[in-house]
Amino acid sequence: MHARRLTRRKMLATLLAGASGAVLPSLAGAGPRLNSGAPADRRFSVFYEGSRIGGHSVSFSRATGQTQVATEIDLKVKAFFLTLFAFGHRSEETWQDGRLLTLKSETIEEGETLTVSGVATEGGFRLMGKAGPYLASAAALTTNSLWSPAVLEQDLLIDAQHGGVVGISVRKLAADELDILGRKERATGYRFITPFLAGTIWYDEMN
Predict the structure, then answer these.
(1) Sheet arrangement for strand 169-180
(2) If you average pLDDT over residues 72-101, what whole number do you get?
(3) How far apart are CA 192 and CA 166, in angstroms?
(4) pTM over 0.85
């Protein structure tokens, strides 16, 4: 048997529907700026072809009027003793009044370690990644911001894994009633695509 090497794009495009395919709460007054309140921590199990291959968590903490958002993703696909795919991501973001103040991340993909750092400046949000420095809009959200429906209103997102910005395309789906942990939840789905990720995410109707 010959092991087939899975590409990151193909794998994450398949996986993200599982990682984000759960009901997330909508935020009161969600719009181009993030709501200043911190939602509850979120933890997802990620499955590929029926098997659990890792997890995706987002945790929040507040201090001195700022909100810290920590994102962790660990994925691994094995066949016998071979690793077909491995991906890890750690990110720390600081937000205040709906604006991104700082970003620091480390991503391991296909054996390469990528780091991104950024800080808000008077001229915008200044990033440093593999491709070098980049100045993003001061109002930009990041690719880790799927916990807020405000991300669906963006055209460009800060790429928290590579640096720079990437485009995002979103298509609204029909509202539906989902079975979440044994209870029915009314939610609206959105299909989204970026150069690296694709999937479907659902937001409930709470305010």
Answers:
(1) 23-24, 198-204, 183-193, 169-180
(2) 91
(3) 13
(4) no
